[in-house]
Design brief:
The chain is 20% helix and 26% strand. It contains 5 helices and 11 strands; from the N terminus they run βαββαβαββββαβββα. The N and C termini lie close together (11 Å).
């Protein structure tokens, strides 16, 4: 399996995701955002970070980068695309995924491990998790408050596009377990074809037990499957 990792000015998780993918024998190529061609690959990853310093709006300037035209073409073929944190913001800015990521409701940057429930374990990104699996994955964001109008949220639910949801210590989906104010406690979604995933938590940061958590391992195992 081959992955292209897109690097923007301000990306800071590009090396992290490369280390994680290579741990699972996925070959990686780092692609600068100004390139106008995308090497053939099975997967494209938009990493976390602060592309263009989050100027104007998170992900807005990165969504206009030259390489994004090729990423959109890649996605249109049904090939896989993952956007993590800032990458998720970029995916919504390009309209590859619906909705938007707003400021956290407390207006503060959040960096900690968070409880999640795997809402849908039938996607290419979650098939190695158990149904309704209870996991912990780190988050680190200032604009992770997922918003969409009621009609869009209804479609996401009906089409089973909600993949990860925030929950409390008892793994109940409620306001107490919602760190940023996201609609329906949404932490990650897929498109209707399930080949594009956007998520705020960082699975690449929890793939070694000595780091404290390893609940990101099934995420990468799912890609291989």
């Amino acid at each position: 399996m081959i992955a292209n990792i897109i690097v923007f000015p301000g990306s800071n998780c590009d090396r992290d995701i490369k280390v994680a993918l290579e741990k699972f024998q996925i070959k990686c190529k780092m692609i600068w955002h100004q390139e106008n061609e995308l090497p053939k690959a099975d997967l494209v990853v938009l990493p976390g970070g602060f592309s263009y310093g989050d100027y104007l709006r998170c992900g807005s300037m990165a969504s206009k980068s030259v390489i994004m035209n090729e990423v959109i073409k890649h996605a249109s073929t049904g090939a896989y695309v993952i956007g993590i944190c800032n990458g998720f913001q970029i995916l919504t800015e390009t309209k590859l995924l619906p909705g938007a990521l707003l400021r956290n409701y407390m207006l503060k940057f959040i960096c900690r491990r968070i409880n999640l429930i795997v809402k849908n374990n039938t996607t290419p990104f979650t098939n190695k998790y158990k149904n309704k699996a209870k996991i912990k994955i780190p988050i680190a964001h200032n604009e992770g408050n997922y918003y969409a109008d009621e009609a869009t949220l209804k479609k996401l639910e009906e089409n089973e596009q909600i993949v990860f949801q925030y929950c409390d210590e008892n793994y109940e989906i409620n306001n107490n377990g919602n760190p940023n104010g996201s609609s329906l406690n949404i932490a990650g979604i897929v498109n209707k074809k399930q080949n594009i995933l956007g998520m705020m938590p960082h699975p690449e940061r929890c793939i070694e037990n000595f780091l404290g958590e390893a609940d990101g391992i099934p995420f990468f195992e799912s890609l291989l499957k």
